[in-house]
Design brief:
By secondary structure, the protein is mainly alpha-helical. The protein contains 10 helices and 3 strands, in the order E-H-H-E-E-H-H-H-H-H-H-H-H. The protein folds into 2 domains: 57 residues, Multidrug-efflux Transporter Regulator, Chain: A, Domain 2, CATH 1.10.1660; 151 residues, Orthogonal Bundle (Globin-like), CATH 1.10.490.
Length: 228
Amino acid sequence: MSTGTPDQQTAGAVRGELLSVSAAARMLGVSPSSLRAWAASGRVPHVRTPGGHRRFRREELVDWLAEHGGEPPAQSPRTQELVPSRIDPMPDLAAAMAKLRPELVQVFEEELVRTRIGGAHRASAARQTRVSGTLETLTEGIRTGDLAGALREAEWEGFRYGAAGQHGDIPVTEALALRRAVDRVLESSFTAAPQQQRTVERALDRLAIRVAAGYADGVRVRLRARSE
């Protein structure tokens, strides 16, 4: 009989194919940094190698996905065409956004208050952590010119809400609030070229589109599961 938490078990004690952080992140459709945070908080099952590295058992991830609403949505060619993932790399702007992340999260909460009917809103540490992760992934995409990771993560976020039967306006509203927050902070704290500003705005619009697309996919998965 094994003892200790899953985090303390070694990979050799678990049978089945083990995935690295990057491979497991691709399977789930999230960034490696988000997956590490999920593993550290105990949200996702994982094991440790003798060297202390996190590994994820494929079968356990499949079960975890099933428990959380099914498989993540596959990106269709039509979606790729409508929401392109490539932009011009902007490392200077990305560096500024990384430094401004705490302020961006704070302004995001302010924008969310404005959006809520009657201003009904309560700050959530979990939501702030999630938004901070979104900003981290977005910033990396702006630095490299590749938004694929940020877009995929946005679609997965919408999918989770749809598959769980939660209101679709929540992730979309948050995506739009984040866009306004970035606009406000960049205009007041960083003098970006007009073209750079427009590129960031379009990137955030793409995030909102992918959230909505993911939500629709999640709803379809949930309804199909009910009919089976």
